[in-house]
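Protein 1 of 2
SEQ + STRUCT:
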Amino acid sequence: MMFIERGLEELMTSLRRSFSTVILTIDLAVKSYLENNPRVDEVMGMSRELEKVHNEIVDRAFELTVRYQPVASDLRRIRSCMEISYGFMRFGRYAKDIVEVLRDFGELNCDKEPVEKAWKITREMVEKSFESFESVDEDLAREVAEMDDDVDGIYSSYLKKAISGEESTKCALAVTLILRYLERMADHAVQIADKTIYVKTGEYGTLK
């Protein structure tokens, strides 16, 4: 195995580790809301771990670029690994934001359905986006982009409900914030899926 190939596999191994942490972190943050039990310290610890691995990936990616002068296709993979790792780190920060909402607002007896629905779709988007990158599956990447509309729809629908005064002020603010963070996670999942297209074709930003 060539040095560059070994280095790329090391990057993917680190990304897989981060991906597992991302799923655990998102799940824990949302379950904290659904169960009215903010797990702030645990989520913050996972968020710090994602940041640590991101820094390791960036360092390794720069080392591979400088030492081995990769060809264009390998350079696209290296760049994509760095950017996906950044996306994973952002997931951790949004999860931290969610549990901080719970900590700051206290016990919330709000409608759980919008958050639960958005969480399930976002989680699936995150899983499929990374799967599309691993397998370089353009169709799966485009499927992720199409799912983004569903999360946007849940957020917009709840926002109208909150503005109409159907919810208490406390719930309206808290749930709107949580849905907004999930919507941002969904946007990052689309950006990760877009790296699949970039690695394969060299075209950037083809997914919305």
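Protein 2 of 2
SEQ + STRUCT:
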Amino acid sequence: MRPRPAFLTVFGSLAAAALAATSAVAAVPSDGPNVAPPVSQAVLATDTDGDSLPDIWETNGYDANGDGVIDVDLKAMGADPKKKDLFVEMDYMAGRLASVAALDRIVQVFAQAPVMNPNGTAGINIHLDAGPVGGTKYNLGGGNEVPYDADLNPAATETTAIKNTHFKPARKAVFHYALFGDSYGGGCSSGNAFAIPNDTFIVTVGPKCNWNATDNTNVGTFIHELGHNLGLRHGGSDHVNYKPNYLSVMNYFFQLGGVPKADGTRYWSYSNVAPAALNETALKESIGLGPNLDTYKTSWKCPDGTSRTSTGTASGRIDWNCDGDTVDTGAADINDDNLTNTLTTQNNWANITFGGGAVGQGANVQSKTAPTELQEMTRDEWIELQHNHK
């Protein structure tokens, strides 16, 4: 978790309203009938579960402009000050919103997160808001169909314009903003989070680029892009992609197909293990990714540009140089970046950053990743990966 920023003392409702317009710090209500007294800095700073949403917001609601009226009733939406919560409003172009079944899977992934809470339970409660089309499960009073635009270009500018039109300003301190669109930037990328960490992302697996937007595609891309909002990177500790030892949907290998498991299922989540680093100059085929990974398989790149998935477990023997045996110790470029480096990894769940962008108590104070580092998987890359898989 990042350090909490110092809070300003707010005097009166006019000052509170001005502050709320530019930051996510809880505004102090003005004095008047049926209005609670000003909230102390200590109370605002209290965040028992560490999700960047102060306890008082999760208990009493969030008053964005200091007028004494609750603008976002977090408790009514299911927030718990002793269990980590994530809120995501989902706006969408016609036909682009993920199915209810896909949204159910996303909720389940976060519910099963190996993250402990002060109330003694594990998991994160993610609250998805699609508006009226979300039915009783996924309607928290936001979520809108927006005008169709086959190409968000420039992506950041057009996404911001749509967000400013359809996303209530009072929600910016509480909700991440997701937009399901068609494509962006004149290309065929699957999505973008624009910065790391952040509060906004897009999922763009629409018909313009002939994406087949299955539930798997939407689930993997949504969790991947939200992962960037939560501070996660393509390579765990860095942006080096296609690492065989990075068992996460943040890895392009596994974003759209899931991490293969030894039992034949797929893992659609962030990594909950951090296997040993792989030195590409001295790979030992007899030990695979190392011990304690018997429930996983993995994928890697071969010298001829094809990719393979292990037939046995990730802890077993792996033919890193693709020569037909698993007895060698030597060099191989197993992520096809034309280098032989040491590939490090990360336990994603142990490194989640809450409060990216304007979400939470410290709006826009975190370091950002340059947009050039957030080039995402394109449809052509995905097709090539499938075509070249052996």
